[in-house]
Specification:
The protein is of the alpha+beta class. 49% of the residues lie in helices and 30% in strands.
């Protein structure tokens, strides 16, 4: 039986993530996807959102489809580093 480990690293305030997990989970998910990285099976995946996190989270609260438009307009990058 094989097991795999996954390490998650968020490059922001963990207090905000914990607060939004308790209050409104989709905001916490968006925050994690805007500037985080995780290590899985010998590769590191870096996620970065090029726009404003405030406006992205605001539109997740107000009207969710606008947040997707912001993701597509401002750009979202995923870098894969193989080790």
């Amino acid at each position: 039986m094989s097991t795999s480990n996954m390490k998650l690293h968020y490059r922001g305030s963990l207090l905000w993530v914990i607060f939004w997990i308790i209050v409104f989970f989709p905001i916490a998910l968006v925050l994690l996807l805007t500037d985080s990285s995780f290590y899985l099976n010998g590769a590191t995946y870096n996620f970065h959102y090029d726009g404003s996190r405030f406006w992205l989270c605001f539109w997740v609260l107000v009207f969710f489809p606008v947040a997707f438009l912001l993701l597509f307009i401002n750009g979202y990058s995923v870098d894969v580093i193989n080790e």
